[in-house]
Structure formats: structure tokens, C-alpha cells
Amino acid sequence: MAEIEFERRLERLFAATPELSDAGAFADRVARRLDAGWTARRWLIGAAGVVGGVIGASQLMVSNLFQRAEAVGDSARLISTSLNHLSSGTDWVAAASSGGGVVWVAAAAAVVMMGFVLSRVIGEI
């Protein structure tokens, strides 16, 4: 019986813990450390995105991708006309051989992504 009373008393003591005098300062220090870590991570991710975008754009320009896409478009048109002669009822082959449209959509998506990265970096400043 004495043990049960002691346990109840102990539970009541731990249920009502007193607040320390520097609790607010401690919470502010922890919040500042967490915010500083996120700011650094955002800057690193943004910088990596910018570097990756520049490298990707330079590789696109150096590799003559646009001329290759036009050549692929010509080949696709040739294949498309050949397949249309085999089966005249397939409209999906003509839709798939649209040329360099996919390349332009990817380039537009890259430009939009760079805009998001730039707005994020400006927002951090």
C-alpha cells in the first residue's frame, strides 16, 4: 500500500513540472539554430541548381542538340510517311513524329525551373 501511495505521489510530482526561468531564451536559441541550418541548405540547393542549369545549358549548346533534333524530326517524318502507307488509320504515328517539339517543351520547363530557383534565391536575400 505504501508503494502505491509513493508511486501516485511521484506521478503527481512529475506531472506538474515547473517551468525553468530561461525556457524562452532556450527556445529562441534552438529556433535560431534550426533556421540557420535551413537557410544554409536553401542556399546550397539553389547554388547547385544554378550550377546544374548552367552546365546543362552549355552542354545543350555544345552538343548541337537542336540540329540533331531537326534531323531526328526529318527521320521521324520519313518513318511516319512509310507507316502511313502501311496503315492509313493510325493517327498516333503522325502525332508522335512532331519533330523537335519535345525539345522545346523541355527547354521551356528548364527556363521555368530557373525562374523558380531565382525567385527563391531573391526571396532569401
Structural description of this entry:
- With 125 residues, the protein is mainly α.
- It is 84% helix and 0% strand.
- The protein contains 5 helices and no strands.
- The protein starts with a helix and ends with a helix.
Helix share of residues?
Answer: over 70%
Largest sheet: none
Order of helices and strands: HHHHH
Our count of helices gives 5
Structural class: mainly alpha
User: Mean pLDDT, nearest integer?
Assistant: 77
Oligomer: single chain
Low-confidence stretches: none
Q: In angstroms, what is the radius of gyration? A: 31 Å
Indicate the proportion of strand residues: under 5%
What is the secondary structure topology, with strand pairs?
Layout: H1 2-15, H2 23-62, H3 65-86, H4 92-96, H5 101-124
Helix pairs in contact: 2-5
Descriptive tags:
125 residues, 0% strand
What can be said about this structure in brief?
The protein is mostly helical and 125 residues long.
